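Entry 14. Ran structure prediction on the chain below.
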Amino acid sequence: MNVSLRAIIGLIRKGESETLEFKESFGREAIETVCAFANTKGGVLLVGVDDKGAIKGIQCGANILKEWADLISQGTGLQPSIEDMRLKNGGRIVLIQVQKSRVKPVMYHGKAYYRSGSTTRQMSVDEITRTVLASVGMTWDEVAEVRASMADISSAKVKNFVKMANEAGRRPIPAGISPLELLQKLKLIRQGRPTRAAILLFGKAPQSFYGQALVKVGRFRDETLVVDDREIEGTLFDQVEGAIGYFREKLDTRFVMTGKPRREVVWEYPLEALREAVTNAVCHRDYLSTAHVQVRIYDHELLVMNPGGLPAGLSVEALKKTHHSIPRNRQIAEVLFYAGLIEQWGSGIGKMMGECSAANLPEPAFESDMAFKVSFKKALPAETMPPGKYRTSTGQVPDKHRLIVSQALWPEALKLLAYCMVPRRIRQIMAHLKLRHRDTFSTNQLRPLLRQGLLIMTDPESPRSPKQKYGTTKEGVALLEGRKSALRKSIASRSLDN
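Output, structure tokens:
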């Protein structure tokens, strides 16, 4: 007996995972799992244990371990460690330990497998391609584009990058450098051809080589109703700036009086956070996928999606902590860093979270499956805000969260909040305030008050419902009470002075 019962029970208690699998018997599926372990992180296969962790044992002859070892070696070329433990009933539990392979992908009967969580999956052609590139230390974008030459590179786009890089100060570049010299210095030339990264970053027509390499942006009312959409092509620099231009066109803004000569413009979502999300999407997307980077703007959410989930070894939970950057496209990431579009590898998630926090918006939500998704949401309604998050110790809304309406319109906003202590329809509110222009009222007062949680819709699931009403929230009531208290103190003070 080479392995102890205690060791077996200890493994079983851990449950199946990316590196542990149970099989009642040895066969084709067991060898596929061995292959998957070798292509992922390595792992342990327990034969004689069912998928619920119950020890069943197997009945087998004396030479069975050698026979299994031969089958694995002949089918995959692997030579894992195989140990067994005999049970009292004469059966055995067999432990097959597999190391991560240095040469990938490991194939079995012409197919490659990998581990995803506690399941074994077959690799697609694209996944095999990525695995082969990774095994020789390359990423997709470092491969020479055999269809391209320097004639496909734009001198103007190279010059613009030189200017950006020198302004960022991360890699000073002589102003008179030729496109060929620059690409050679950045290792964007291989075998006399521009790399795929060079085409995407500086190409005259990148989409003529990679039709999927674009950003689709759109304004949605719901999943099926598209109000407006646009395809943004060109280089990756063009795509980032094009997306920001679309945001400037479509997103709402408000003005904040700061005491300075010029009013501060505040966007519906912080533009720097959105820039970071789009930059990350075009930088880290899977260019083997035929899908596009997508940006979807809904009434209460903005979603950025890029094809390809997180690289192996990186989880959504790890993103929010200090973590190493694992760029899917190494050359693209390096050039964007030199240009100042990426502050520091691995810092993009933190920047998005920080920008949203500074704007008093909820933390962005991150999700990774077949695509990586970043979801930005508007301020939470007052009823669901964490206690104290937007309040002072007295329960009032702080001034910096109040000044979303111009000073001139603030008295009307207070009247609105007082009137909506009982929920009212929009036409009732406008009649009470003697207003005529609905769009102006909505932009200058209604939406800002909703965004700051001072006002709430009675039917938020149907924002355009003709029966929609608006009611003052607890924060709004606290604000009104605070104003009344301040007024009473002011009157009392003046009375004493007289």
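DSSP finds 17 helices and 19 strands in the chain. Will compare against last week's run tomorrow.
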